[in-house]
Design a protein that fits this description.
The chain is mainly alpha-helical. Helices cover 85% and strands 0% of the residues.
């Protein structure tokens, strides 16, 4: 597979293509599933190393391995960060679930209190109606008794 960069000198392009092939072989040897996504940025690192003469006096295989290693460490850092974010999200979910349980428990208590209060209101309303009725009966009796006394006095 050929790997091309725009506007590179022929020598740099040739060395980058060679580095791509070497890193591809290394990635396959390591049985890396995501080698295709890692190789392009790794070769870009290698090309930067070439342009800045970092490869002079160093074994090409070591520079190529270092480029792959840098990317893999970056991915590892991203995975660690993602794992931490997931852990924090899980903690937040657990807190929210706990709050929901507490609120549901309080809701049940309030519904029971409301039901008991409604029963008391109904009982008191009925008692009030009965008292009112008895009061009306007593008033009628009192009026009749008064009328009876008034009639007897005549």
């Amino acid at each position: 597979m050929s790997f091309k960069f725009a506007k590179l000198p022929d020598a740099t392009e040739s060395e980058s293509e060679h580095a791509y092939d070497d890193m591809n072989n290394l990635a396959r040897g390591l049985e890396m599933d995501d080698a295709a996504t890692i190789l392009r940025p790794a070769v870009a690192f290698y090309t930067i190393a070439l342009e800045r003469n970092f490869t002079r006096g160093r074994r090409r295989e070591l520079v190529e391995a270092a480029c792959l290693h840098c990317l893999l460490r970056g991915q590892e850092s991203a995975l660690v960060q993602h794992a931490e974010e997931c852990r924090l999200a899980e903690e937040n979910i657990q807190k929210l679930e706990s709050e929901v349980e507490s609120l549901l428990s309080r809701k049940s208590e309030m519904e029971l209190l409301l039901s008991n209060s409604q029963e008391k209101i109904n009982t008191l309303s009925e008692s009030s109606r009965l008292s009112e009725s008895k009061m009306q009966d007593l008033l009628k009796s009192s009026v009749l008794e008064s009328e009876s006394k008034v009639s007897k006095s005549y």
